[in-house]
UniProtKB/TrEMBL annotation:
Annotated signal sequence range: none
Keywords: Membrane, Transmembrane, Transmembrane helix
InterPro entries: Cyt_P450 (IPR001128), Cyt_P450_E_grp-I (IPR002401), Cyt_P450_sf (IPR036396)
Organism: Tetracentron sinense (Spur-leaf)
SUPFAM superfamilies: Cytochrome P450 (SSF48264)
Record protein name field: Cytochrome P450
Pfam family, one: p450
GO terms for MF: heme binding; iron ion binding; monooxygenase activity; oxidoreductase activity, acting on paired donors, with incorporation or reduction of molecular oxygen
Matches recorded under PANTHER family: CYTOCHROME P450 FAMILY 1, CYTOCHROME P450 SUPERFAMILY PROTEIN
TM region(s), chain numbering: 20-41
Length: 359
């Protein structure tokens, strides 16, 4: 810093001696160069990229995209083929619309394309992407995957989780039965969300956390919905990095607020479990270790070089994403699709076949 001080003083003195017009022109030129230089460099690096539409400087093709993005990409594929490049702000993307090419990318070239882009929201919520979902492909990713596969997703582990699944499903059926007896309406999407969330909470920490009869359960449910909404919201700062300075969508402030709530939640879970473990490691009533215990064990034992730096933050990262976002989003999406199909069948029942068929 001391070495830069004389240089900065010289530049400041020189600029202050210039006429106003010259200073304005110099500043404007510097800003334009700062914005356009990355675009020029990126275009030179992408000379061999697939064909694609020409976009605006800085904005790329964003001004031409609508809310019906799938239709926009379909029309572009008709023009440029099943494999084309697209400039999304200052980020370059390749769009694939051919099953054959997609199969080659996802199967034969899996290791090249396996790492995911970390958005600003995910970086904030998921502790800089320490979860298995966002860890770059490599030794650490392989080890985390091995832990989940052998310790948590084995057929034996899934079988031991069956009592918890039965309990949650029976609870839902009991609620629906009581509502039908009293002719009370039920929000199926909300009810199935709670069931799915409680299944995941049992998997993660052996607790039924989403008890909507309690204030804590309702607050946790609202927090998870906010995470799902904000983590998936389009953010211009992800596509045009210099906009991070301005937070035009007010998304960063919302995400930071939710991230603080999520961090407090994860800290409380870990502290409570560490207190319980002081009396000795306990296996839950289903006869298995949950995700939290498994990762605490690996942190303490340091069985592998890749986990020597497996800190408390890494554990919170696994909880923060695998619990309230990734797994929960996947389950609720599947439940939602099932419910939509059920509604269609109820709304348009098929005509009854002749009695002879049922005999």
């Amino acid at each position: 810093m001391n070495l830069l001080h004389p240089l900065m003083s010289t530049i400041t003195t020189y600029l202050s001696s210039l006429p106003l017009f010259t200073k304005t022109l110099a500043i404007a030129t510097s800003i334009i160069a700062f914005l356009l230089l990355p675009v020029i460099i990126r275009r030179r690096n992408w000379r061999d990229s697939p064909p694609g539409p020409i976009g605006w400087p800085i904005l790329g093709y964003l001004p031409y995209l609508t809310e019906r993005l799938h239709e926009d990409l379909f029309h572009l594929a008709e023009t440029y083929g099943p494999l084309f490049s697209l400039q999304m702000g200052q980020k370059s993307a390749i769009v694939v619309s051919s099953p054959e090419i997609a199969r080659e990318i996802l199967k034969q070239k899996e290791t090249i394309f396996s790492s995911r882009t970390i958005t600003e929201a995910v970086r904030c919520i998921a502790y800089n992407g320490t979860s298995l979902v966002f860890v770059p492909y490599g030794a650490r990713w392989s080890l985390l995957r091995k832990i989940l596969t052998t310790e948590l997703f084995s057929s034996r582990a899934i079988e031991l989780l069956q009592p918890a699944r039965k309990h949650q499903v029976h609870g839902l059926l009991s609620t629906l039965y009581s509502a039908s007896k009293s002719k009370t309406s039920v929000n199926l999407a909300d009810s199935t969300f709670v069931v799915s969330a409680n299944l995941i909470s049992n998997f993660v920490c052996s607790k039924t956390l989403f008890d909507t009869a309690k204030k804590e359960g309702r607050e946790l449910k609202e927090m998870v919905w906010e995470i799902l909404e904000d983590a998936g919201a389009p953010n211009l700062a992800d596509l045009i990095p210099f906009l991070k300075l301005f937070d035009l969508q007010n998304l960063k402030r919302r995400v930071q607020k939710i991230a603080k709530m999520l961090d407090d939640f994860c800290e409380k879970l870990i502290d409570e479990r560490l207190e319980e473990r002081k009396e000795g490691l306990k296996i839950n009533e289903n006869g298995r270790l949950d995700m939290l215990d498994v990762f605490l064990n690996y942190r303490n034992d340091k069985k592998d070089d890749e986990l020597k730096q497996f800190s408390r933050v890494d554990i919170k990262g696994m909880l923060a994403w695998n619990f309230p976002v990734e797994i929960l989003e996947d389950m609720t999406e599947k439940v939602g699709i099932t419910l939509q199909k059920a509604k269609v069948l109820v709304g348009t029942p098929k005509p009854r076949l002749p009695d002879s068929v049922y005999q």
